[in-house]
Write a structure and sequence with these properties.
This protein is of the alpha/beta class and about 600 residues long. It has 20 helices and 25 strands. The strands form four sheets. Strands 3-2-4-1-10-9-11-15 form an eight-stranded antiparallel β-sheet, with helices on one face. Strands 5-6-7-8-12-13-14 form a seven-stranded antiparallel β-sheet, with helices on one face. Helix 9 (about 305-325) links the parallel strand 16 (about 300-305) and strand 17. The radius of gyration is 26 Å and the shape is globular. 2-deoxy-2-amino glucitol-6-phosphate (AGP) binds near residues 361, 405 and 406. 2-deoxy-2-amino glucitol-6-phosphate (AGP) binds next to helix 9.
Length: about 600
């Protein structure tokens, strides 16, 4: 996701725009830019890098314009670079736009515009928009406001998500905006008006906001704002007064980035699987050319990663093996690179990394390439080192993950890998298509089910209040629940500094059960109906030794009682970690806050471990 800002009024626009971008950098920070109307021309200043770099662009602070738009980018199409930065203009330099979202049909639109004499300076999906506006404007559009009508005609050609701001030197007294699936708010000032992706960017200027709805247009001039529906029928809109203070607003009202990112997971999954998961059609991965012959030639797939990313890989192992019947090995990158792995051109190596900068993962990837393996990167940061090194890259679109503890990246990775496994199975024909369609439907329902799990936040916070003084915790699970136990245990450790271990339920009695004594907290995950009875008896073994038990399950538990039970929605057991991990993200968060620790920046940790 990206951050966009706009201003029209009596002040100089540039300081307002840059200040707004700084507040929105948590939404994206790999490049930034502004466009203003200066002496009847559009002036665009933009570059790769953080918002602070804009101050180094010569002349930017001499711009006296009082109307402008601005953008801080989280790249989705085209690596971070000056030409891929926003704003983008049409070929005639009469329209400039900034955009947050993904235009799914941009390839067709580029082809259409190229066939009509347009050319492109960037690799972005966004650049089709200003040229479409110019195309429709010059072709002639009808309507009271031809600027608005041209923008609508262009938007009608788009498929995907967007929040768009447009300025034009032909219409120097207004900014036009429209949104669909990407957020946009308008700030109402005195003789001036503001636009932003989120409230934080402009809260220091006004507390009065209009929250734009999907498919709603607005014409913003310095002394009034007009609203239109998708048929350009004008309507009025209520003002919303925001009581937040500015600092709280950067986290969109959440106390910490981690809690905000936990709650962003439904959208992170939607953005990631959108236009890849096709119900009733084959899944598609743009830019990924994997053939049936290649997949049939493989003797195994290696998934290599660190920490939470590795835990996502473990879940993916089960899914790929089940659907594709290709053996999958999962390795910790720092071990993989030194164990002289048996890999060659018949091995596909998948590298998972949220940051795309983890040193061990990057080094392991280079090792794979030196052995002739094809390499596929799964990352959340466009143009990161690992994505530049890999043969193929498939991105999660979770948006920037600021908190050190990874949450939305994990669920986005597992969702993406599940769709990728289906994609491979459809290429191979290795799994019944009707069963694949059922799994696709289950995946498409995950965001809504995850919202249900988030609704349990209060109960989980109450449990955290009862166990935050513990010194040891044990997580138990079987099969894919064991992988969730590993991730839950890691969350508790890295956020609350409580010693914690994850065990395969059936393994505890082979030694570690010696540590279980009165009052020790044991946490069980039970989501697989076939394995639940065995896991329940494992947990009862610790109950009989005095343990306090907290169970997360999607099953109806009868004739057993545990100290705490959190019931989550059922789903296909292959993808249940996407739901069952969330209670542990929340539990770790609330234990950490109960202990008064630094949730977003836990001690000794870094968001990206770029050293060995
Ligand atoms: C998880 O909460 C940690 N932040 C850490 O384990 C992280 O997952 C690991 O360092 C890998 O990072 P990456 O995904 O950026 O490669």
């Amino acid at each position: 996701m990206c951050g966009i800002v706009g201003y029209i009024g009596s002040k100089k626009a540039v300081p307002v725009l840059i200040n707004g971008l700084h507040c929105l950098e948590y939404r994206g920070y790999d490049s930034a830019g502004i466009a203003v109307l200066e002496n009847k021309n559009i002036v665009v200043m933009k570059d790769k890098g953080r918002v602070a770099n804009l101050d180094n662009i010569s002349g930017i602070n001499d711009l006296s314009s009082s109307i402008g738009i601005a953008h801080t980018r989280w790249a989705t199409h085209g690596k971070p670079s000056q030409e891929n930065s926003h704003p983008h203009m049409d070929n005639s330099n009469q329209f400039a736009i900034v955009h947050n979202g993904i235009i799914e049909n941009y390839n067709e639109l580029r082809e259409f515009l190229s066939n009509n004499g347009y050319h492109f300076l960037s690799q972005t999906d966004t650049e089709v928009i200003p040229n479409l506006i110019h195309y429709h404007y010059t072709k002639g559009v009808s309507g009271k406001d031809t600027f608005l009508a041209a923008v609508k005609a262009a938007v009608d050609d788009l498929k995907g998500s967007y929040a768009i701001e447009v300025i034009s030197n032909l219409f120097p007294d207004r900014v036009i905006v429209v949104r669909k699936d990407s957020p946009l708010v308008l700030g109402k000032g005195k003789e001036e008006n503001y636009i932003a992706s989120d409230i934080p960017a402009i809260l220091s200027y006004t507390k009065d906001f209009y929250l734009l709805d999907d498919n709603e247009y607005a014409i913003i001039s310095k002394d009034h704002i007009q609203f239109f529906d998708s048929n350009l029928v004008e309507h009025s809109k209520e003002v919303t007064t925001i009581e937040w203070d500015a600092t709280a607003a950067e986290k969109n009202g959440y106390e910490h980035f981690m809690l905000k990112e936990i709650h962003e997971q439904p959208n992170a999954i939607r953005e990631t699987i959108n236009n890849r998961l096709q119900l009733g059609e084959k899944c598609t991965f743009e830019g990924l050319t994997i053939t049936k012959e290649y997949l049939q030639s493989l003797n195994k797939i290696c998934i290599v990663a660190c920490g939470t990313a590795m835990h996502a890989g473990l879940v993916a192992k089960n899914i790929i093996e089940k659907l594709c019947r290709i053996p999958v090995e999962v390795d910790i990158a720092s071990e993989f690179r030194y164990r002289d792995p048996i890999i060659d051109e018949k091995t596909l190596c998948i590298y998972i990394s949220q940051s795309g900068e983890t040193a061990d993962t990057l080094a392991a990837l280079k090792l794979s390439k030196s052995k002739g393996c094809k390499t596929l990167a799964i990352s959340n940061v466009i143009g990161s080192s690992i994505t530049r090194e890999a043969d193929f890259t498939v991105y999660t679109y979770a948006g920037p993950e600021i908190a050190v503890a990874s949450t939305k990246a994990y669920t986005a990775q597992v969702s993406l890998l599940a769709v990728l496994a289906i994609h491979f199975a459809e290429i191979l024909g290795s799994y019944a298509q009707d069963k694949l369609e059922e799994l696709k439907a289950d995946i498409s329902r995950l965001p809504t089910k995850l919202e249900t799990v988030l609704g349990l936040e209060k109960s989980i916070a109450e449990i955290a209040q009862k166990i935050y003084t513990e010194h040891d915790m044990y997580f138990l699970g079987r099969g894919t629940d064991y992988y969730v136990a590993m991730e839950g245990s890691l969350k508790v450790k890295e956020l609350s500094y409580i010693h914690s271990e994850a065990y395969a339920s059936g393994e505890l009695k082979h030694g570690t059960i010696a540590l279980i004594e009165n009052g020790i907290t044991v946490i069980g995950i039970l989501t697989n109906p076939d394995l639940a009875p065995k896991s329940i008896s494992n947990i009862q073994e610790v109950v009989s030794r005095g343990a306090k038990t907290f169970v997360v399950t999607n099953q109806e538990l009868t004739n057993v009682s545990f100290d705490f039970v959190i019931r989550i929605p059922e789903t296909n057991s292959l993808i249940s970690p996407i739901l069952s991990v969330v209670p542990f993200q929340l539990l770790a968060y609330y234990i950490s806050t109960a202990k008064g620790l630094d949730v977003d920046k836990p001690r000794n940790l870094a968001k990206s471990v770029t050293v060995e």
